[in-house]
Design goal:
Layout (H helix, E strand, L loop, with lengths): L2 H9 L4 H11 L9 H8 L5 H10 L8 E5 L5 H10 L2 E6 L2 H13 L6 E5 L12 E7 L8 H11 E14 L23 H11 L2 E7 L1 H16 L16 H13 L3 E9 L3
Parallel strand pairs: 1-2, 1-4, 2-3, 4-5
Antiparallel strand pairs: 5-7, 6-7
Helix pairs in contact: 3-5, 4-5, 7-8, 9-10
């Protein structure tokens, strides 16, 4: 089995679209007339979910009619939100086929096929020509990327001169040796964490400049603890990213918070750009 296939298998949950529709049915939410906001609790499948996407988007210099790429787009929630918010078009690519299938079905449900297109592919081998996009972002994908230099070189290649590149990730903390399972790995296999300074160095080597890094650890811990408190009182809603993480969802959440608090991981948000 290749590394990409192993990573895809880790995230795969079979009929993801069916899981989401089932949760919507439990909420008596009709599929006709669904909005981007209706799906937001589940289709922003990364740390802190929809709020993290909004905070990242607040910092992105996207203009109407531009073409943006979401690398490791998951279920396409961020792509749909950004396309709607900025009136731009977004192409998403993800290695998990069940996510791609669900993403395109969800895009059709909210009637955004003209703005958002999701494809099956690998961020280390992007299926696009040089200087194709006006901007790129990747949210909590790089923890599973073995060849970080190749991943960043591909992002650089498909961007137009002057275009932005943004990422969020759990970097490796000073103490290291994270507790598992966590959302991106059950036992440490397929986890390729590097420190924020190493991420910066890889980006600089790829050619990016104006690199701005923000520490987001405190926000993530607060988000994880909110989920755990709701779970403890039986208040988790039918629709949420917990339905995508399987039976170990709470253990993964607990470990993710503990890793940040103990300095084993170091979450960051980073924005840079390709030189003009």
């Amino acid at each position: 089995m290749t590394n990409a296939n192993a990573i895809a298998d880790h995230w795969d949950r079979g009929d993801v679209y069916g899981l989401i529709v089932s949760a919507l049915n439990k909420m008596s939410k009709p599929l006709v007339g669904l909005t981007v906001e209706d799906l937001a609790p589940v289709d922003h499948f990364h740390a802190r979910g929809f709020p993290a996407t909004v905070e990242l988007a607040d910092r992105l210099p996207i203009k109407a009619h531009q073409h943006i790429i979401d690398i490791g787009c998951g279920l396409g929630g961020p792509a749909r939100y950004i396309a709607q918010r900025f009136q731009c078009s977004v192409s998403g690519v993800d290695i998990t086929e069940s996510f791609v299938e669900a993403a395109n079905k969800l895009t059709a449900l909210v009637r955004m096929e003209g703005q958002v297109k999701i494809e099956h592919g690998d961020g280390q081998h992007l299926p696009y020509s040089n200087a194709y996009f006006d901007g790129a972002y990747t949210q909590h994908v790089t923890m599973n990327v073995a060849d970080r230099p190749r991943f960043f070189a591909e992002a650089y290649r498909v961007l137009k001169p002057g275009a932005f590149f943004a990422l969020t990730e759990h970097g490796l903390g000073a103490k290291g040796d994270p507790h598992y399972p966590v959302p991106w790995s059950a036992d440490g296999s397929g986890s390729y964490l590097v420190t924020p300074s190493e991420t910066r160095a890889f980006l600089e080597k790829a050619g990016f400049e104006d690199i701005v890094v923000e520490d987001t650890g405190a926000k993530y811990v607060a988000g994880y603890k909110t989920v755990m408190e709701r779970a403890a009182t039986g208040a988790l809603p039918p629709l949420g990213t917990h339905i995508l993480m399987g039976e170990t969802a709470l253990q993964k959440t607990r470990n993710a918070a503990r890793n940040v608090e103990e300095g084993r991981t170091h979450p960051i948000q980073l924005i840079c750009r390709r030189p003009r």
